[in-house]
Amino acid sequence: MITRLLVANRGEIARRVIRTCRDLGVSPVAVFSDADADAPHVGEADLAVRLPGAAPSETYLRADLLVAAARTAGADAVHPGYGFLSENADFARAVLDAGLTWVGPPPEAIAAMGSKVAAKAMMAEAGVPVLPELDPAEVTEADLPVLVKASAGGGGRGMRVVRSLSALPTAVADAEAEAASAFGDGTVFCEPYLERGRHIEVQVLADRHGAVWAFPERECSLQRRHQKVLEETPSPAVDEELREALRAAATAAVTAIGYVGAGTVEFLLAPDGRFFFLETNTRLQVEHPITECVTGSDLVRWQLAIAEGARLPEGPPPARGHAIEVRLYAEDPADGWRPSTGVLHRFALASGGPGTGSSTMDGQVVEFRTGERDHGLRLDSGVAGSSVIGTHYDPMLAKVIAWAPTRTEAARRLASALASARVHGPTTNRDLLVRALRHPAFLAGDTDTAFLATHDLTAPLADRRAREVSALAAALADAADARRRSPVQRGVPPGWRNLSSQPERKRFLAAGEEIEIAYRLTRDGVTAEGFPEVALVGYDAERVVLDVDGVRVAFDVGAYGDEVYVDSALGPVALRQVPRFTEPGEAVEEGSLLAPMPGTVVAVEAAEGDEVRAGQDLVVLEAMKMRHAVRAPADGVLRALKVAAGDQVEAGAVLAVVH
Amino acid sequence: MTTLRSTVDRRSPEFLANREAMLARLAELAEEHAKALAGGGPKYVDRHHGRGKLLPRERIELLVDQDSAFLELSPLAAWGTDHTVGASVVTGIGVISGVECLIVANDPTVRGGASNPWTLRKTFRATDIALANRLPVVNLVESGGADLASQSEIFVPGGRLFRDLTRFSAARIPTVTLVFGNSTAGGAYVPGMSDHVVMVRERAKVFLGGPPLVRMATGEEADDEELGGAEMHARVSGLADHLAEDELDALRLGRRIVARLNWRKHGPGPSLPPVEPAHDPEDLLGIVPSDLRTPFDPREVIARIVDGSDFDEFKPRYGTSLVTGWASLHGYPLGVLANARGVLFSEEAQKAAQFIQLANSAEVPLLFLQNTTGYMVGREYEQAGIIKHGAMMINAVSNSAVPHLTVVMGASYGAGNYGMCGRAYDPRFLFTWPNAKSAVMGPAQLAGVLSIVARQAAAAKGQPYDEEADANLRAMVEQQVEQQSLAPFLSGRLYDDGVIDPRDTRAVLGICLSAIHSGPVRGAERFGVFRM
């Protein structure tokens, strides 16, 4: 029996495993890098062990430290989560060698599936359809396009699509380098690339007694750079016949390798209905919650039970309805998916839609868990308000999952929850996810791995006018906040004037553009330049209600220093307030000698490159009929001389640089 | 809680007519205020902007905290004179870095910001307010100095400007001067006498004598920058503590200076939350009769000014022509005296004297809401001692040491103006509603009295009385008195601190009370001998 479980991971999956531990009465142990010292998963565990350093290679990828941590904390089992060492057979062996229970498949099964090249051969032998493997050296024009893949890879890393032979050597070299750095194994191979294929996978559970559950399929076709962005179950492209074929293939695959535990068999579904084995993931998948939502199963619970030797009953449980998961990443889809960093000030799914001002989780939202109902929202998040989003780890902030009787209902509910979520911090792919969920092609089930490349969904939900009106709301909330914070005159209406000579002006940056808001608060409300259709209904520091052209719109405003986030039905808007005054003093190069006053250079006593002594006159200025010698502050070399005799200089101008 | 009830009927013809009349007055007032806001007019405003300079109100808007209130004082100064309305200077109370300050800004679009006698009077009124209420003073200077055409009226009294600045400093009331342009000759002593000085690079010009005067006096050849440039003062003379890159930078520096004053108000803070009145201030427009002879219940006004319309009346059944009682405004406790039926009788005078003493005992500021035609006259009242009782009230008002606020809601005639803390009785602030009138007596009464006196004089000399001339005289006097008793006329002469929209009364008084509490609030140690 497992009594104390070390979760050898971080972020949302660590929290996910801890949640099941709580349900089962297992005592969870967390590990944390220095960057994660204040992360939510650390506080939620009973015990936590520090892994010094921040880089994964120093921390979550250190099998020795993790095994030592389990021993020190008195754990009797280890759950690897996903990523990091979850598919590392050596780690599994080290855990077992330490006398601990390994919550995962046998090391041999991991090793067998760890090499994609070998795995494909095994699967072909077991009668599972596979794509032909191509030797990179023998790829011909007729084989194009091809996919270069890392044999030990996953998560899109070490993967390259090649459409011309000339690009192949570079792609192979890059993939090898990336694979070597990410997985410690630079082996790559090639496969035919299906441009419009769908990514279909089957979740399996296998006990130690030969029983296998193959769940209904998941589709994970919406990807960016081979990284899954949206997953759903069931797939709109899979009928009952195909489903049974997929399940049978998956069962055959895991049976062939004597698999035990939770795993996923991934297939590529061609437009003609044929499917091919891609790989087996010998761990829990990121997208496992959608299977949980439609079946009511707790896959982590089954992982622990199987590790304890339990038998799977007759199953799997029947699926009902439809579930969709999206991955909220801290990245900017409009800027080449560039990861964004910074402080996440607030993160919450609001209750009754945008502008309701609620900071609490919706009654229908559950965290890391599937309710008994046939519909709902689930949030699996590794972050909390005021988390710092850094560059050390995966930029995924959270997974949001909706399930409902039908696909359309699930998509609508999820889009709405995302659109109204409070995501106050780094730029995310939230707007793109909402646009995808509302896209006619998506709703028609017309999804394939090229979906995000085919459809440009990078425009923000809030259009320019929405950003402007949101900036007005931000300005008014700021006015209310100013009154609240003022040490005096709190009873006086904001911006009150007995003689009004001009509007109050505030400037904001939104989507790279400056918006100036000029407004006057009067006894009748607000008059704002450029907003003739807008009337003020009410406002305070957190909430502004405006009548926009006869339509009442509520804006929730969250301000954190100069960062302002405005949430409304018009779309979420991130603003940066431009300070009223610019602070003087730009940084100057170290060792710079500045003109102490404006004046004329009357003499230059040294040349560039000269060795100079402390106190030596370098430049002589004349100003206000006074001569002022600028001297070397220390012994050194005159690296730069910026002026010549006769020059006029401003006070503070750089005259020379001495190092 | 004693929440005042209102019996105002918003649909009554009287209410609607009153409202219409008041709106007409407010429209006239807005026109006069527009003159002040226009400064020197579009030509000079454009020229000023063309030089990359800001107008005085633009400077003030950037100086005060965003979304804070600014109460402009004496905006109609010089109204009805040969000088521009506003008197080429802007004064007011604004919040800078959380500190309530008295701001004085020259308007360089009006004759280069030169001072005329009204500029001086308006500035002195502002400095009086700063001194009485212990408000830091911030000068935004750009002035050509004295308007030489009226130098004889300015030179001698003008010395007070510099005397005041150093007395402020001695009283530990900080003075900050931001120099945006000319501040020469006598004007140079404004930065000279200030605690903190900021000068704008290439704009500020501060010297006792400019190049021509220096050449005349000593034969020396020197240019503006050498004699009084910002750079020179920041680096050589030390007159400038801070050198600002431009106007915006000067205002930024000014805000930083105030932020570092370590300013603490000496009066208590508000003791209650600023609950809005239960009744709509909008009704004030319809409550005040367009004909001042019609009395109105001041409780309807109090109910639209004080916190929560909550008012505990003192002696409600005694001396009922004067309403007295306790309330709070923006959380500050307040004693209120308000005329109910114009005339003050002996009872009202004694009630007021007692109430004022109670307020001093409790150290509670007083608000006078004036609508008075004066103390009652006639045999019965003289014999009952109306002079003695009026004197008691004036004694109490004069020697009361708690802060006084006065609002002229309607009539302010005769000694009623004095007893109800008119300008001569130094209320900390005095504001007028646009319908108000103030004079020794009503125009018709005054003309009538003149007529009776003339008739008596003619009779004494046995001369026939020219009825036609009498009628003309009466009409002329009546018209002149009427004109001189109107709000803009009185405001133009600095007899109030501004004419305000009745609906703004609560905000104005709230700002004033908050400013007043920058200084201590103490009751009188003693009063004059009360004649019993």
From TrEMBL, chain A:
This protein's record includes keyword Hydrolase = no
Ranges for the Biotin carboxylation domain?
A: 1-457
The record, for InterPro entries, names: ATP-grasp, BC-like_N, Biotin_BS, Biotin_carboxylase_complex, Biotin_carboxylation_dom, Biotin_COase_C, Biotin_lipoyl, CPAse_ATP-bd
Cofactor(s) needed: biotin
**Keyword Nucleotide-binding applies:** yes
Q: Which Pfam families match?
A: Biotin_carb_C, Biotin_carb_N, Biotin_lipoyl, BT_MCC_alpha, CPSase_L_D2
Q: Which UniProt keywords apply?
A: ATP-binding, Biotin, Ligase, Nucleotide-binding
Q: Where is the Lipoyl-binding domain?
A: 587-659
- Name of the protein in question: Propionyl-CoA carboxylase alpha chain
Q: Which organism is it from?
A: Streptoalloteichus tenebrarius (strain ATCC 17920 / DSM 40477 / JCM 4838 / CBS 697.72 / NBRC 16177 / NCIMB 11028 / NRRL B-12390 / A12253. 1 / ISP 5477) (Streptomyces tenebrarius)
UniProtKB/TrEMBL annotation, chain B:
Q: Which residues form the CoA carboxyltransferase C-terminal domain?
A: 270-532
**Domain CoA carboxyltransferase N-terminal: residue ranges:** 22-273
Which is one Pfam family of this protein?
A: Carboxyl_trans
PANTHER family xref list: ACETYL, PROPIONYL, PYRUVATE, AND GLUTACONYL CARBOXYLASE-RELATED, METHYLCROTONOYL-COA CARBOXYLASE
List the protein's name.
Answer: Acetyl-CoA carboxylase, carboxyltransferase component
Q: Which organism is it from?
A: Streptoalloteichus tenebrarius (strain ATCC 17920 / DSM 40477 / JCM 4838 / CBS 697.72 / NBRC 16177 / NCIMB 11028 / NRRL B-12390 / A12253. 1 / ISP 5477) (Streptomyces tenebrarius)
